[in-house]
Every structure is written in structure tokens, then in C-alpha cells.
Amino acid sequence: MDRYQEIDIFIKSIEDLQLNLTQKQLQQFIDYYELLIDWNKVMNLTAITDFIEVIHKHFADSLSVVHVYKPSNDKILDIGTGAGFPGIPLKIMFPDTQIVLLDSLKKRLNFLDEVIDKLQLKHIKTLHGRAEDYGRDNMYRETFDLVVSRAVANLATLSEYCLPYVKKDGFFISYKSGNIEEEINKASTATKILGGQLKEVKRFHLPGTDIERTLIVLQKLDKTPIKFPRTAGRPAKEPIL
What is the tally of structural domains in the chain? Predict the structure, then answer.
């Protein structure tokens, strides 16, 4: 398959999400992919390197949030962003958003800083540190319309990482795969204590594939008690159950 055919598949996968790419956005995604592959040769950013797989499992997956929430002028935080998913694809697709990419590994953020510079993205920045620490900082606490995360952690732990950043009436959306019923049930206490409420569970297939994904949507109804998030490491070791 040549690159033109691959790009056609990419465009189709975006159209399946009821989105349309401009020529500029298409080039930004291609540049992002090429930087990802180059940097991946010297550091572990992703095990997925085939262009078609990246289209489906990273780009389309990141943008699948539109099934439940379509960003416009929102202030968005991506916690545990890794190689920039879902934050960078969201910024490319929705350029009017303001996005913060939070990760605990500086090397990954060095990569993302180059992506931001090469793609000439505006109103987006990287933030180095742990979610537990910045979640107690008034500059970031309860200031975001939307917090997203594809990080691998149970929902109770993720809720303690993410909900403190969400302002009242805002949303935390967790990207998940596999059977998550038990995980959702176990997180119900944490969600309530942290000021959130389960609003929606959206199951779907990634465009053009039989890969199943789930978006868990939590809405922030009340302020998060000041003692949360707890000190670094505790949400993972001792989730609220």
C-alpha cells in the first residue's frame, strides 16, 4: 500500500467521526507521525509504528472523544499524555482549544515540545510533574473544562488524578478498552467523594476496524475536597473504594 492509499484511509477514518481535515491539519498529522517514528528510534514512545495502525490506534482513537464531547474553545488537560495522545490530535483537530500536556517523564515532554514547535501549534504547553502535585496547585486546580486521559490505571485512581483539575460542571473523560463494568462499579465511591458523577459510558469501534473502545464520562458536580489528591503514589497504591 502506498502513502496515497494510506492517507485516503486516514481521511476516511476522520470522516467516520463526522470530522473533516483541512490540508494543513493533514500535513500536521503526517509531520507528527514522522517525528514520532524518528524519536521512537532512540526512546520508547510507542510500540505502534505502522502508519495505518497509528491512524487507527492513536489518531482516530484520540479523536473518538467526539462521540461524547466536541471541543471548541475549551481549556483541556491531558494527564499522562505520553507521546501526546490524546492531547496533540485534539489540538490539531480543534485549534481553538487551550491544552496542557502533563507527564512525569521529561524526555517525553522534550519530544512533545519539538512536535509543538514543528507543527506551529499555539496555546498548548507541556507540564513536567506528577498529577498529584499539580492537582493541589491553585493555578491548575479546578480550572479545566475538560480533563482527558488514556493512561493505564484503574478508574478510581484516575478519578483522583483527574477530577481535582475539573471545574464545576466540567468533565473528565477516560479512554478505556476491554471489560470495564467492574472497574466502573468499584470507582463509584471515589467518583462521588471527589465531586463527580458518572454521566455516560460510550462503547464503539474505532473507525474502519473491529477494535472496541469505551469512553467513560464523569461530570464534576461539586468541588473536590481539599485533601484530594493525596500525596504522590497513594492514589495508585490505595485507591478510594
Answer: 1
